[in-house]
Design a protein that fits this description.
The structure holds two protein chains of two kinds.
Chain A lengths: L8 H7 E12 L36 E2 H13 L3 E2 L6 E4 L9 E4 L6 E9 L9 E13 L3 E5 L11 E5 L6 E7 L9 H19 L11 E11 L9 E6 L2 H20 L7 E6 L4 E7 L9 E2 L10 H8 L6 H12 L3 H10 L2 H9 L4 H19 L10 H12 L5 H12 L5 H8 L7 H14 L1 H8 L6 H11 L6 H12 L1
Parallel strand pairs in A: 12-13
Antiparallel strand pairs in A: 1-10, 1-11, 3-6, 4-5, 4-15, 6-7, 7-10, 8-9, 11-12, 13-14
Helix pairs in contact in A: 3-4, 8-9, 8-10, 10-11, 11-12, 13-15, 13-16, 15-16
Chain B lengths: L5 H10 L6 H24 L17 E2 L9 H6 L4 E2 L2 E5 L7
Antiparallel strand pairs in B: 2-3
Chain lengths: 503, 99
Amino acid sequence: MTSETLVPFEDVLAAYDPALGLEVHVELNTATKMFCGCPAVFGGEPNTQVCPTCLGLPGAMPVVNGKAVESAIRIGLALNCDIAEWCRFARKNYFYPDMPKNFQTSQYDEPIAFNGYMDVTLPDEGGDGETFRVEIERAHMEEDTGKSTHVGGSTGRIHGADYSLVDYNRAGIPLIEIVTRPILGAGEKAPAVARAYVSQLRDLIVALGVSEARMDQGNLRADVNLSLSPKGSGTLGTRTETKNVNSFRSVERAVRFEMQRHAAILDSGRAIFQETRHWHEDTGITTAGRPKSDADDYRYFPEPDLVPVAPSREWVEELRGTLPENPVLRRARLQESWGYTDLEMRDVVAAGVMGEIEQTVAAGASPQAARKWWLSELSRRANDAGVEITDLGVTPAQVAAVQALVDAGTVNDKLARQVFDGLLAGEGTPEEIVEKRGLAVVSDEGALSAAVDKAIAENPDVADKIRDGKVAAAGALIGAVMKEMRGQADAGRVRELVLEKLT
Amino acid sequence: MPEISRDEVAHLATLARIDLSDAELDHLAPQLSVILESVASISEVAGPDVPPTSHPMPLTNVFREDVVQPSLTAEQALAMAPQAEEQRFAVPRILGDEQ
């Protein structure tokens, strides 16, 4: 098979029901690794965060990181899971140099958390967001693998490589793997459900504060399982597992692509081969990986070097008390209290400034004013500077202070932008910047009135139009006055003066 | 009675990356069956009041504080490697696939 044949998406839906399954790995932000005290930070020099335990040297003994167990329980609780009263780690045996022990310490039939769900809100065009319940089968604890670089070979890809270089800094970093039950009945919405699930799961992880959850840095990695069954048959087809799909958009695209690819194979009377697939971000396709091993082939057995984890019910309840407000409910609550439309709220969420707006409103600004500054002015500046908006250096309290100056009539919106220039340049408080830069609007009625008279005299044709009732033409005169006043006038007051004088 | 076939032994050998000749397979398969039988007889002795165990010590919840301990230096770590390059472990070409 050279290039994949694809069935048009609508035709897939006419003949097949998709079944989705998602496995998401979350790299925890603990200070140390899962089973040893090596630092779990990202970006160290190669093989400087390793010890006998994470290198799998003979005689080394692992000890469980209590903080990682705590994070695992909190994730489980936030996903409405039951928390195991007693569970063990297991060895997953496989030979690949990314795990120097030749096994990964994981959990097998005794996960720390199981039987949960997450209600996923689908994006909608208008109307109310539709909610889709995704059932969580389990969330279990395991460890990350080392990082291989393949050297030589014509393509630089694995199969062409002559040899590989391995850095074990990442080996042993705590991972939580969250596995859904098969998601059935999503139909045409399967790609959107997959995306919304991963996106909301990330929001939840961020709210819990247990991971940096950056997909681009691999803190959060999604594997997409997909199968098709003949429409209405109620059976489950053979699945493929597309590994390491590393953006929300790619999750959606990968589901869609696999649906179309599976349908083409099934339509031609062939069978789906159970295998892992590699996702290619650039071309938006998947290619064959390895045949999927049976769980038996991993020869799981209980890890003899670790004792069972048996979280007391008191501890579990204590951790339940630390859960943040559910991000979906929080979003709904804030949208209602701010009176934003769905579209406005979606833009706010997409820009990642919900928390900033919340704090700006708490500092006294109106929700509409807070949205305006964060979404237009500050997003644009962050974008221009190539930084996250939260790293821009403007605080919610400062935004509220700038808006207070606008509300008091001290500056207009245009001058307020110059106040932000001053804030970013570190020139002091908004009040000090207005003072130093001489930004206050001119409230001298005499000066304003003179400027309006001058503008009328210089634009007689415009003035005539307004006299004839074409009020819309006033903009030209207001513009001329604002220019004359170097922007330091209250445009609303100028408009009033123009209309007073001409109508 | 538990029994392990010659094919199963061959499969396990592949999984464990142990290269066995036909003669070795013929020799080992019956031996492993005997071992399995012997181990299985323990299950018959253990009554329902004896729970299966994976650890000899009746302990749970042995946790470590999340506090960084000194790591090895890269030199120490790589000193044990047959081959190293660019401060990384050099390993033979990989035919399998990443997990």
